[in-house]
Design brief:
The protein is an all-alpha fold and 220 residues long. The protein contains 8 helices and 2 strands. A two-stranded antiparallel ribbon has the order 1-2. Helix 2 runs antiparallel to helix 3 and helix 6 runs antiparallel to helix 8.
Length: 220
């Protein structure tokens, strides 16, 4: 079993393992893990899996040092948070991971929309970018909260990332229950941007994938 998982992890063109880790991380680890020691250790372990799995798509020689920074710096901060947890550590961690998500998402999109037939792997890549977008927006909201304070959002129960992940995903899918609302002007702007992105991304993606498949069939 572990050998099969390792082969999937090492397959650079295969997005399956990254998608599995990202789904577990976003929908299980972040919402359900508490802030105690064992919870932090589990959180750190999945964080490492998420970051290191993405490295498989970033490890060209010219980008390797930058890739190691994107993995090493957040992981170092996360480990240090096990014993000390300050606002600047949390904000720095959010910033690093946001940049990492943008970089990783752009590379996956490039591979997803490269020439060739539409495969399951390409569809998985498109889903990963969609989830990464929701994750990045959640961290942006969390950063705004850290800077502007509790008054930036109305309806928060806690200040943990799980609140902002929930808010981000309901905004991305334009579900919008209304139990959490942004008060800060920057948070409101980001909410509008995310809702617009959440509508346009699937529509443009589907149209693009269909047109690519038609063009490929014509050339065959």
């Amino acid at each position: 079993m572990f050998e099969k998982l390792y082969k999937i992890w090492k397959a650079r063109q295969n997005f399956s393992f990254l998608l599995i880790i990202l789904v577990i991380y976003m929908f299980v680890i972040i919402p359900m893990v508490n802030e105690r020691l064992m919870g932090k250790l589990l959180f750190t372990g999945f964080y490492f899996l998420f970051l290191s799995t993405g490295i498989q798509f970033l490890d060209k020689k010219r980008t390797l040092p930058i890739s190691l920074i994107f993995v090493g710096a957040p992981l170092t901060i996360l480990i240090s948070q096990i014993t000390t947890n300050t606002t600047w550590q949390t904000a720095a961690l959010d910033l690093f991971v946001i940049m990492y998500c943008i970089w990783l998402g752009s590379i996956i999109l490039k591979r997803t929309f490269s020439r060739g037939h539409i495969t399951l792997n390409r569809v998985q890549g498109a889903v990963i970018v969609y989830l990464l977008s929701g994750f990045a927006f959640a961290l942006l909201y969390h950063s705004i909260y850290l800077i502007a304070g509790p008054s930036s959002f109305k309806g928060l129960i806690t200040s943990q990332r799980t609140e902002f992940m929930y808010f981000s995903l309901t905004t991305l899918t334009t579900l919008g229950y209304g139990d959490l609302t942004p008060i800060n002007v920057f948070a409101r702007s980001l909410t509008s941007l995310e809702a617009l992105y959440g509508q346009l991304y699937p529509a443009i993606l589907i149209a693009r994938l269909v047109s690519m498949e038609i063009a490929t069939n014509r050339e065959a």
